[in-house]
Amino acid sequence: MKQFQGSCHCGSVEFTFSVPDIDHAMRCDCSLCSRKGMVMSATVVSPEDIKIRCEQGVLSTYQFGTETARHYFCNRCGIHTFVETRLNPGHYRVNLGCIDELDALRLPEVIYDGRNL
Ligand SMILES: [Zn+2]
Description:
This protein is mainly β. It has a single domain (2-116), classed as Beta Complex (Metal Binding Protein, Guanine Nucleotide Exchange Factor, Chain A). It has 1 helix and 10 strands; from the N terminus they run βββαβββββββ. The strands form 3 sheets. Strands 6-7-8-9 form a 4-stranded antiparallel sheet, with no helix packed on it. A hairpin with a 7-residue loop joins strand 6 (59-62) and strand 7. The longest helix has 6 residues, at 31-36. Bound molecules: zinc ion (ZN). Zinc ion binds at residues 8-10, 12-13, 74, 76-77, 79. The site of zinc ion has 9 residues, from loops.
């Protein structure tokens, strides 16, 4: 497992997570992700493998449709940092753009069929 560290743009939300590796990314074509354009982790992160630290009151969630998935964002800088997935509540996909050490936009990508989920 490799550990990665991410943060929102203003630094109010920070998170650390472990995955086997990050050699590709995922984009989702659902109505929300199409608008965000977020490059997400292809791997789903288990609750025990992610630690989230944030200033009180800055982490907001947005939910739509079945309201199962929780889309977290920093309400100070507006950056979506991670999402609690619809199929695995309590498990996360993270916004790879939040990781400084990663060239997220240059990773090979797969498109997730969120539109038809
Ligand atoms: Zn922020």
